[in-house]
Input
Amino acid sequence: MADVILKGRAFKFGDNISTDHIIPGRYAHLRSNLPELAKHAMEDADPSFPQKVNKGDFIVAGNNFGLGSSREHAPLVIKMSGVSAILAKSVARIFFRNAINQGMPVLICDTDKITSGDELEINLSRGIVTNLTTNTQLTFGKIPQVMLNILNEGGLIPYINKYGDFKL
Amino acid sequence: MAKTLSEKILSIRSGSDANAGDIVIVPVDLAFVQDTTGPLTIRQFKETGKKLANPSHTVIFIDHAVPSPNRQLSNDHQFLRNFAREYNCLISDYGNGVCHQLVAELLANPGDIIVGADSHTVTAGAVGAFATGMGSSDIAVAFALGKTWFRVPETFKIEITGKFSEKVDSKDLILYLIGRIGADGATYKALEFSGDAVSKMPMSQRLTIANMAVEAGAKVGIFPSDNITRKHLEKQGRGDKFKELHADDGAKYEKIIKIDASALEPMVSMPHTVDNVAPARTLEGTKIQQVFIGTCTNGRLEDMAIAARILKDKTIHPNVRLIVAPASRNVLSMAIKKGYIDILINAGGTIVPPGCAACLGLHQGVLADGESCLSTANRNFKGRMGNPEASVYLASPATAAASAITGEITDPRKVK
Output
């Protein structure tokens, strides 16, 4: 099978980007109108993010990305904004599982040397991030097998619809 | 092999020898959503085309935006009510209170597996349940299959000894702990609380600690099921659900953290992360415009009692608004009977209905630009209380009540 390659620009964020940064609670009234909700993705971390992001781009963060609420709307609006993967030094527990359940790859790696605007090429199959701007490479940790199985089906609901049960 | 509390519960419920790092599938005793996560969960559940595995153990709580502040949320509420009617599951509507308080009062039992589409589902760890928050996909599947998967967590044992000094309580302890280990200090881990201070700690205080386990990144914050648990269940009319649960001697802990409760002082978590913690006395002079007492962290009868004791025959500072939200109908009713509500309104407080109220920035106390709120809730992230230009400080009910009188962050030991 051919390697899965993602290509896009990096949007860099710091440590402790909470689900309130990603999709603030004050927009709870838009949660049944996802296209409207997605216009506010990352608003309290970078208000211009929804305008600047292009399909395929990456969110690159520091430690503990996605801490806080269990709202799956957080990875969902990131996905709807066009982002194709999240790279972070570490990710909060619920967010990690929610992102995978939404079919959004979350890659744990040392993001210090990536800056906003860098062009990245990610080989999901081999675990390699190539920074085309700085011409450097780094590797990311393996996604646990259970979660990889879910990710490969595009998320938990498609997974369950295919297998009818957990086949771990 | 000797087991931690989490390993023990997951072993019993998965019917396997579950040890840290293993993947297990377990039946779910209670699965729930609330009004801001419920609509997405139900849409995902409907995509599976399945029936509810266990309607009488599936609950919809309408608590985050009650009464509804706008048309869109009213429509979400209607959607949830229609679902509950159609699928014959349980629903808790306006006035009943916050999901986690109601789960602790009415539904959670020792050894249960509880999953909720709300991160503070960890609260039920106080009654010895393995309880954790999940996203809507996981809860949708728990609704449909009646089970879920977990990686068995490694455990940090938090050993608490000594006695709290006056006007210091479990809120100060959990803020101190989070400050010590950091907002990601226990990511993926179980926090297991033990020690002589825990065996004497009342249920209301255990609930406050368990509630905030997630603020250190933990999967669960779990307490042994003991005599205090038995009394709690008996008081709620389900003493028959009691079973004793303790970790085994010799269980393997990734870390042991010892805390001397008698050495603790009133603590405050400063903007904009929960682990940004300092003693209240070092923040004197910090002006606040709003004080919020309530939530799943500190909206219990005992918390109302602490606030009432400090505010009795006092008036709040003219530059401060005091908002009080009892965590449940039962708390409100009891607080009225005991005279706490009378004291709080005569001191200048505003009582709002049982529910999440101002905590998450939807309504009932959204802050203005540049304002600061001292809250007894569990989160102070930027924008949390509805305005990214405002600041939120977190503290105990005693510190909140004392600060409401002075108009600035105040060590409650200074107020008579």
